[in-house]
Amino acid sequence: MARMSAFQRLVTKYQRDVDFLIIYIEEAHPSDGWVTTDSPYSIPKHQSLEDRVSAARVLQQGAPSCALVLDTMANSSSSAYGAYFERLYVIQSGIIMYQGGRGPDGYQVSELRTWLERYDEQLHSGQPRPV
């Protein structure tokens, strides 16, 4: 996940009011596929769930202190949420409250931060939550 340090700051700031979850999907730039020169990791395309588990462990070392789960090998979550390559969501009581743009260009941690700031203000002011 790009911009992990900015995301980590959000997790740290809002973890008392918000549950964060990372769903690790298929590798966007596998070392045996569409490689980028700025990738800090060399992770080949996942051929099995065990491959995905191993790759997720690498991510978890630098990931925020939040839950990390894996997408299925059929990429069900990625397909359902249009997450390929990265995407940010806020889901409350089964309702999508915030949907960020598709990564990498539409993936804006700053937009999520703005949404969370408004949510936090309303949560602590006793006003209804944004829809």
Q: How would you characterize the overall build of this protein?
A:
The chain is an alpha+beta fold and 131 residues long. It has a single domain (4-125), classed as Glutaredoxin, CATH 3.40.30.10. It is 37% helix and 13% strand. It has 4 helices and 4 strands, in the order αβαβαββα. The protein has helices at residues 4-14, 49-62, 76-81, 109-125, and strands spanning 21-24, 67-70, 89-92, 95-99. The strands form 2 sheets. Strands 1-2 form a two-stranded parallel sheet. Helix 1 runs parallel beside helix 4. It is elongated. The relative contact order is 0.18. The model has no long low-confidence stretch (mean pLDDT 82).
Mean of all residue-level pLDDT scores: 82
Low-confidence stretches: none
Helix % is: 25-40%
Instruction: Tell me the number of structural domains.
Output: 1
How is the main sheet built? 2 strands, parallel
> How many individual helices?
4
- Measured on Cα atoms, how large is the radius of gyration? 16 Å
Keywords: Oxidoreductase, Selenocysteine, Thyroid hormones biosynthesis
InterPro entries: Iodothyronine_deiodinase
GO molecular function, one term: thyroxine 5'-deiodinase activity
Protein name: Iodothyronine deiodinase
